[in-house]
Amino acid sequence: QQEKEDLQGKLKLREHLSQDAGTSEAIPAPSKNVDLEMKKLQCKLKNSNNEITKQLTTIKSLKKEIQEKEERIRELQAKISRLERDLNMKRHLIEDLRSRLKANQENEKTSNEALGSLERKVKALAEDCSNKKTSIDLLKQRLTVATKEKSQYEQMYHKAKDELEKKDLKLTNLESKIIETECAMTELETTASQQLHGLAQQSGHALETVQKKLLLTNDKVEEFMTFVKALTRELHHSVQQLRTKIKQAKKMEEMRACKKGLSQESVQLAASILNVSTTDLKEILEVEDDEETAKTKVEFEKDKEWLQYIQKLLEAQ
């Protein structure tokens, strides 16, 4: 997962570099190669992610099966312990019955010896014997029932043993499968690390070439910006010169028209009326109109705005 995160970070860096390279129109071919490499890397990452998820699901399912089998084994062990306890209790009962039988047999012997000497007590002893026989029959019946139950419990015990052996075999098979999956995982990790190392080397060479080309393009862009700035300055200067020349030409034409329309006598008359010399009157006639000055100011402001707009464009990109 750490190698995967490193790969994703490298891919993001390459995407960022490819986007930066896509903005410069001078080098379209290397960006396509980088996009192809990025697509290949993304496909490989998706394949590795799919394989890892599959193996994780198999491991989880195996763990669940092992837990279920362990719970089943615990239940069987608890049943076996209960059966053993029941068998021990029944054995104790049988031993008690046997001891009682032995005691009864000893009593019978004593009673038989006493029969010869005590004929009067024969009836009482016969009754005791009949009672004891009935008790013995009951005990025999109990013994038969106990033997039957014992045989049933033994059959149950053998079945439980067989099931345990089968489950042990299944557990061994599952452990072998887990070991095989771990070996496959290690092999996959080694192959993936080798492939990633090779891809990292290739991407490093590609990044070096892209950086060199970016430096060249930056130099060209700076040269272009200096050229554009010089060109705009020259244009502004030439436009101002042309405007000044046009104004001078207009002034000269107006002066000529005024000179043609006004004779020297009329100029002298106007100067005498205004109480001004002829030179001063010519200077007054040469004064510009307010409208023309306003127009020239507006034109100069437009030129400044144009220069500022071009500087903004150059600063932007």
From TrEMBL:
SUPFAM superfamilies: Tropomyosin. Residues 1-33 are annotated as: Disordered. Residues 136-191 form a coiled coil. Keywords: Coiled coil. The keyword Coiled coil applies. GO terms for biological process: centriole-centriole cohesion. InterPro entries: CNTLN. GO terms for cellular component: centriole; centrosome. Residues 1-18 have a biased composition (Basic and acidic residues). Transmembrane segments: none annotated. The keyword Nucleotidyltransferase does not apply. PANTHER family: CENTLEIN (PTHR18957:SF0). This is CNTLN protein.
